[in-house]
Q: What sequence folds into this?
């Protein structure tokens, strides 16, 4: 129920959110990794030298989306970059994957 407050020369309306609001944008925070991120992990497991461009092609998404997915996988400590951006490779943390993909 909105709250109306009379202020000199006007009024202020305060609208309160319901306590049962479900924001689908924030739901993935507590979810395990999504299917695309699992595909990325599998691809990196098969080819530790795979590029972001190749991952984007496999996943049928933009390179920017792959960058975000890789960042999330790094934050979850599921993958690690070994060496420089060019010439380096990916390392998959197998012990973390079995827990996160369930």
A:
């Amino acid at each position: 129920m909105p709250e109306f407050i009379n202020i000199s020369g006007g009024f202020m309306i305060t609208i309160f959110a319901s306590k049962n609001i479900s924001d689908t944008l924030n739901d993935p925070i507590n979810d395990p990794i999504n299917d695309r991120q699992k595909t990325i992990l599998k691809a990196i497991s098969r080819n530790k030298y795979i590029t972001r461009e190749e991952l984007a092609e496999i996943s049928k998404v933009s390179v920017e989306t792959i960058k975000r997915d890789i960042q999330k996988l790094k934050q979850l400590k599921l993958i690690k970059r070994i060496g420089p951006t060019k010439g380096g490779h990916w390392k998959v943390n197998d012990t973390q994957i079995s827990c996160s993909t369930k």
